[in-house]
Design goal:
- The complex is a heterodimer.
- Chain A is mainly alpha-helical.
- The two termini of chain A are 20 Å apart.
- Chain A is globular, with a radius of gyration of 19 Å.
- Chain A has 13 helices and 2 strands.
- The longest helix of chain A has 27 residues.
- By secondary structure, chain B is mainly α.
- Chain B has 11 helices and 2 strands.
- The longest helix of chain B is centred in the first third of the chain and has 25 residues.
- Classes of the chains: A mainly alpha, B mainly alpha.
- Chains A and B meet through α5, α10 and α12 of A and α3, α9 and α11 of B.
């Protein structure tokens, strides 16, 4: 029994330790590193949701829909109500996205495989098309977001990045722990079963459609929180956030990271940020090529993602 | 082949670029402009064919056993790579070759001038569509291909060279994409990002029609084209999103597209 529980507890320990380490080391980090890490947390949150779906064998090519919804909800809060508290933004962003996912879920939960992917892609492109044409929300230019505040306090200029990073890390920690718990509930454990053979799941008396719906809502909510976070970190939002290439990025990270553990999405997002920044820095005109090549190599040689390397190492030791 | 191929957009772009640049060179040398149509076609085939064969042999072949979604991601990665290759080879400046388009002039339909080139394009599309249908359903090779797609393992056991059929299909499909690019090149300015535009549109088309169905693709294409033109005419602000709206609406009613084939269930 204690043998079986060990890896679960280790995940919790690693997450907590990483958070404490980050919080302590944060003030000494350069500003650009903090920014990259904050964006990595935002993307990691989206990918964490994607991980839930991927475990059930569903690839959503439209997580950008919820990412963008979260960002625009956060932006709208500042634009129309003058609110700019990070946590309020994230809560509203996640809430709006989850509610949308709940409604869309009735349609999407019926689809599997390629159709699930393409339909979710179509939905995110609908949002893109709408945003591009809506003058009130800045059309293709998007609009700027108010500087972030924290519980009504506006941190000093040199502390803003750290405050945002710490809030991002805290939210990421809590959601990662919650998702980690969820994965071990009966509903969470249904995911690999659905991937493997849905008809048998139904024979056992569980509803695959309901399970997929629940996962879709969670994934949507997480993507919304991530979008709100990215919005407040960057300070600007535009419809490009709903474009299908943004969804492609998230899937890239998910494949890079693997779906083995809730830590993987955040590690993957950080590595992706590093590859992206490096590729852009080395060859601004061919960064897509470097990204594509990296993705290709990963799929061919590491089908289970980077996380499988870690597992292999653990099993050997 | 049960492959959702994002690289298709790249082949479209490659075809367009190859045709545009070679035709421009042809015309600049003062060769007869009437022959530029042949140059369009030959350029697209010559450039796209090696790419298609290389990609199928080297990259896709080892991965067929993997999940459909994995193949989708592989083609997405290839698409990212090729997108930059195109930029490296042809630069980021637009190409214009209006000569083949202008050469044919236009004619009058119900009081409106309509370019002859577009009409011929419709005829060419019909020719290729019917040709493909004939190839698939009325020739030995086509029927064998359908068998291979339905069940590669049994086909292999029956002595069909499955690998060769995969290669031929992928190459043929990619060539058609390149030709489409070549034929479109004279009507637009060839710029980077051409591939992205066309791939999302063609996804909408095939999903509406039903994956793997020829009549479905034709009907889907006409629907998307009509809906788009109507929206441009009546409500230009919804042009982009109306296509996806139609796609979502069709999928909501017919989960596998209009002309979908029955799928066996695995128990």
């Amino acid at each position: 029994m204690s043998q079986a529980r060990k890896p679960r507890e280790r995940t919790v320990t690693i997450l907590l330790a990483a958070f404490v380490l980050l919080a302590a080391a944060g003030p000494w980090l350069p500003q650009w590193a903090m920014f990259i890490m904050t964006i990595a947390f935002a993307r990691g949150l989206v990918v964490l949701g994607l991980l839930l779906l991927l475990r059930a064998g569903l690839v959503s090519f439209g997580q950008a829909l919820f990412y963008c919804l979260g960002a625009y909800s956060a932006g709208a809060l500042g634009r129309f109500f003058g609110l700019s508290d990070i946590f309020v933004e994230m809560a509203v962003g996640g809430g709006v996205a989850a509610a949308t996912a709940f409604v869309l879920g009735f349609l999407l939960a019926r689809y599997r495989g390629i159709f699930f992917g393409l339909l979710s892609l179509a939905l995110s492109m609908i949002l893109y098309g709408l945003l591009v044409k809506s003058e009130a929300l800045g059309s293709t230019d998007g609009f700027n977001i108010l500087p972030s505040t924290l519980f009504g306090i506006r941190p000093g200029a040199e502390w803003v990045r750290y405050a945002v990073l710490l809030s991002a890390a805290a939210v990421a920690l809590v959601t990662a722990l919650l998702v980690h718990r969820y994965l071990n509930t009966p509903l969470g454990r249904l995911a690999p079963a659905i991937k493997d053979n849905e008809i048998r799941v139904e024979y056992m008396g569980a509803s695959a459609r309901r399970a997929v719906h629940v996962k879709y809502v969670i994934a949507g909510g997480l993507a919304g929180v991530g979008g709100a976070l990215a919005a407040t970190a960057v300070g600007h939002i535009d419809p490009e956030m709903a474009y299908w290439t943004t969804s492609g990025e998230f899937i890239f990270i998910a494949i890079l990271a693997g779906t083995g553990n809730v830590i993987a999405p955040f590690v993957g997002a950080l590595i992706y940020g590093a590859i992206h920044t490096l590729a852009y820095d080395l060859s601004p005109n061919t960064w897509q090529m470097s990204l594509g090549a990296a993705l290709l190599v990963l799929i061919v040689f590491l089908p289970e993602g980077l996380w499988s390397l870690f597992n292999r190492y653990v099993r050997h030791s | 082949m049960k492959i959702v191929n994002v690289t298709h957009g790249s082949f479209y772009a490659i075809g367009a670029y190859a045709a545009a640049s070679m035709t421009a060179a042809w015309l600049a040398r003062g060769y007869p402009p009437m022959l530029s149509y042949a140059v369009l076609v030959i350029a697209a085939i010559l450039v796209a064919a090696p790419f298609a064969i290389l990609i199928e042999r080297a990259i896709l072949r080892p991965l067929y056993a993997r999940d459909e979604v994995v193949i989708l991601l592989v083609t997405y990665a290839l698409f990212l790579i090729l997108e930059d290759v195109v930029k490296l080879v042809w630069g980021v400046n637009p190409y214009f070759i209006a000569e083949p388009y202008a050469l044919l002039g236009s004619f009058q339909v119900a009081g409106m001038a309509y370019p002859t080139y577009n009409l011929i394009l419709v005829a060419v599309a019909l020719f290729f569509g019917l040709g493909l249908a004939w190839l698939l359903h009325s020739t030995r090779a086509g029927k064998l291909l359908l068998a291979v797609i339905h069940d590669p393992e049994v086909s292999r056991a029956m002595g069909i060279n499955v690998g060769r059929y995969y290669l031929a299909t992928f190459a043929l499909g990619s060539l058609l994409a390149a030709l489409a690019g070549a034929f479109t090149a004279p009507t637009v300015s060839v710029v980077p990002g051409l591939g992205v535009e066309v791939i999302v549109l063609s996804f909408a088309v095939v999903v509406i029609g039903g994956l793997g169905s020829l009549p479905g693709a034709a009907v889907g294409a006409v629907m998307v084209g009509l809906v788009r033109s109507l929206s441009v005419h009546y409500m230009p602000q919804v042009e982009l999103f109306v296509i996806y709206f139609v796609m979502a609406a069709v999928l909501a009613v017919r989960p596998r597209g209009l002309f979908s084939l029955a799928e066996p269930r695995r128990i």
